[in-house]
Design a protein that fits this description.
By secondary structure, this protein is an alpha+beta fold. A hairpin with a 5-residue loop joins β4 and β5. The longest helix is centred in the middle third of the chain and has 16 residues. The radius of gyration is 17 Å and the shape is elongated. The model has no long low-confidence stretch (mean pLDDT 97). Keywords: Lyase, Metal-binding, Queuosine biosynthesis, Zinc. Pfam families: PTPS. Belongs to the PTPS family. QueD subfamily.
């Protein structure tokens, strides 16, 4: 019997969408206001969803405190109040789009989870713009 456990988290971060190998004009045409050389920020909302079998001993799929601690160390501590382009190593050569941020978060959390679990990441960049990644 598969059940999915969800944990919500939040972080604030700045970024700039651009490619180093493109001219400012081309970046501006593709990324518009998100290409601001002075960066801009978002209040990101994260939902980490872990699917697995219910453990007959505990009644849990996963202890939510374990998931909470992984999210805190791998995402909140690493990204909160940071400039993603400048301060987060994963984005030194990776454009920090919502799509790429979701994949990076997935990889960081997945590496800390037991391989028996299926993970899905939903990342809200704004209340109306969000992405989902599940490694499939």
């Amino acid at each position: 019997m598969k059940v999915t456990v969800h944990r919500k988290a939040h972080f604030n971060a700045a970024h700039r969408l651009y490619r180093k190998d493109w001219s400012f004009e081309k970046n501006d045409a593709v990324f518009g206001l998100c290409n601001n050389p002075n960066f801009h920020g978002h209040n990101y909302e994260l939902i980490a969803s872990v699917t697995g079998d219910i453990d007959p001993e505990t009644g849990y799929v996963i202890d939510v405190k374990i998931l909470k601690d992984i999210i805190k160390s791998e995402v909140e501590d690493a990204f909160d109040h940071k400039n993603l382009n400048v301060e987060v190593p994963e984005f030194q050569d990776l454009n920090p789009t919502a799509e790429n941020i979701a994949v990076v978060i997935y990889n960081k959390i997945k590496a800390k989870l037991d391989s028996k679990f299926h993970l899905e990441i939903t990342l809200y960049e704004t209340p109306r713009n969000f992405v989902t990644y599940s490694g499939d």
